Amino acid sequence: MDTRRHLLCLLFLSTTAALGQTALPATEVEAVVTTDLGTFRFEFAPDKAPKHVEQFIARARQRYYDGGAFHRVVANGIIQGGDPLLKNPRTPKVLWGTGGLSLLGNEFGDMKHERGVVSTVSIPGKANSEGAQFFVCVSPQPALDGKFSTFGRITEGIDVVEKISQVPADSNGITEKPVRILKVTIEKKREEPFVNATVEDMRKTVTLKTMLGNIKIKMEPDWAPENVRNFLKLTQSGWYNGTVFHRIAKDFVVQGGAPAGRASGPNHFADRWVRPVKGEFRTDVKHARGIISMAHGDDPNSATTSFFLMLGPASSLDGQFSAFGRIVEGLDVLDAFAKEDVDGETPKRRLEVLEASIDAN
């Protein structure tokens, strides 16, 4: 092999190694947008707007958006950014929003401008004038459907997007001070825990570290495999950490696992994996003391995150709720919950899940 050819081969190999994740398809990566008000992530919809997705990913990898800003907002409506002119802090306000346009044609599809949807910016009244600028919907914007190219959806950090939308702005929505985009990176999507776990994989013990002591719960995937999968997923992702026990019904149940009241706030990156779980009701599994089961609303298939621990037997729940585990250590801690002062069924003091973890086998 001649020297030139050898050098070209080495260059190709080193470039391929450096790019790393570039070989991953757009469906397996997401954008991570870090701003001076926090970070949010969004996944791509290459089936809806392939050219826009390809452009955004390429530009993000070229650090095109780093140092830019969100310069236009509608409170609790939309945020707009991506203008390269905003990378220069001396750019006059009259030019904000005029850069990075007329780079791509329209790719209008059937993806609606719903909460969390990411779409493109164009020059008013000019067809095929979209480009690098983009906006994120904080609330549904049906008037924009079919007029702009939607190409992504928020998977994490919608609370950050809301916060950006609420910064001070003039009557035209131009921010008094731009919200800086520190960087935009393209990363592999977070993988949903236990999504493909077998029944044997789910024979785990979960420890709830609470303010009153530790409770160990043995999962029973033979009873309710999908509810066990859901509970393990939320546990491993840290979703339950900082949540509270919001209900104590004497001689009946201790209930927790709702997002309201979480120490870190109601939003969590694993919210993307929270979905209703089909009821798995068995009349041969009794709701006796120490059993853990999933709460649901009027729809028996509406359980999501809230669970309850049985303080005593309740045969009326058998075959009506999905029991999926049992306490194997910490019944004394459960008794301590039963002794807490309540206002009706609401604890008078904050009773928090400090940490939920899966024990090592």
Question: What does this protein structure show overall?
Answer:
The protein folds into two domains: 27-188, Beta Barrel (Cyclophilin); 200-358, Beta Barrel (Cyclophilin). Strand 1 (29-35) and strand 2 form a beta hairpin. The protein has helices at residues 3-19, 50-61, 158-165, 225-236, 331-338, and strands at residues 29-35, 38-44, 69-74, 78-81, 117-120, 134-137, 150-156, 174-188, 205-210, 213-219, 245-249, 253-256, 291-294, 307-310, 322-329, 342-343, 346-347, 353-358. It is of the alpha+beta class and 361 residues long. The strands form three sheets. Strands 1-2-7-5-6-4-3-8 form an eight-stranded antiparallel β-barrel.
Main attributes of the structure:
361 residues, alpha+beta, Cyclophilin, 2 domains, eight-stranded antiparallel β-barrel, eight-stranded antiparallel beta sheet, 16% helix, disordered N terminus
The radius of gyration computed from the alpha-carbon positions, rounded to a whole number of angstroms, is 25 Å
Main sheet characteristics: 8 strands, antiparallel, barrel
Average pLDDT number: 93
Determine the N-to-C terminus distance: 54 Å
Strand order of the largest sheet: 1-2-7-5-6-4-3-8
> Strand tally, please?
18
Q: In percent, how helical is the residue content? A: 10-25%
User: Any idea how many domains?
Assistant: 2
CATH architecture assignment of the largest domain: Beta Barrel
Unreliable stretches: 1-22
Classification by helices and strands: alpha+beta
What is the number of helices?
5
From the spread of the alpha carbons, the general shape counts as elongated
For the record, what is the CATH homologous superfamily label of the largest domain? Answer: Cyclophilin-like
Give the percentage of residues in beta strands: 25-35%
CATH topology (fold) name of the largest domain: Cyclophilin
